Amino acid sequence: MTSEFLFAAMGGAIRMASVELDNAMIVFGRNLVGAAILLSWLSARGGVQRLATGVPWLHLLRGLSGTAAMYCFFYAIAHMPLAEAMLLKLTAPLFIPLIALAWLHEPLGWRIPIALGIGFAGVLVILAPDDQGIDPVALVALAGGLLAALAKVTVRRLTHSEAPELIVFYFALTGLLVSTAPLPWLWQTPTPTAVGWVVLTGLLATGGQLMLSRGMGRAPAGRLAPFSFFSVVFGAVLGWLFWGETVTLATAGGALLILISALVTGSGRLPSADSPRHRQGVPDRST
Fold this sequence. Notes:
Blueprint: H1 2-17, H2 23-44, H3 56-79, H4 82-89, H5 92-104, H6 111-127, H7 136-158, H8 164-180, H9 183-186, H10 192-216, H11 221-224, H12 230-243, H13 249-265, H14 276-279
């Protein structure tokens, strides 16, 4: 539960940083802070002993999809109610079984398609199309969920042959390089206040992933799935306290449907406590 509070607080820090900075600057700052923390962590553990990999394209796919998900998520936080942004980020478990089926040929079983139908019905309730169509920002957030799902399935594929430290190292490297590339055209000199919010974003994101990794090292992912929805609750509270946002009936109803779906699809679909990543306590920095 602590990790979900940190993720919600991260959303608040992103919202504050976005007052002054473009989305690309915030993503770069978050990756820079995360990479610095990761390098310090690796140095304390003796560093990455061997950087050679036989599947560079998988590392690239994981890095690109995870970084793209970060861009989508940060943009959604800056432009839509915090609770809704946190909720649409949690749609990743709806896409994971479909990607795993198409790529890893993992069977769905009879319960998963029913659960996915319920979950996507919840997404439609939240998106609430009207005469003007669906809010484009909500579609960006939903795309972030899809990209995050692709990143997580790629991590599962990588754990078949790659050390956890190697997976995290290449993701940090890819994320930093990708987010650095547009800076010559989008650079903004941040104020000390903006720097503070960006640094806080990186610290909260990394702290949340560390707490999540520790929790998943002690319990199966399926048992922890319901707790991920506390980030929506915390996001709703922060949105109400600082920005006067209220949770609509559609958001609450959609959240309930997605929660029911996640309880089914999350059970056994994500890496459990027996996976190499969680045994060694390496955080999955998808956001």
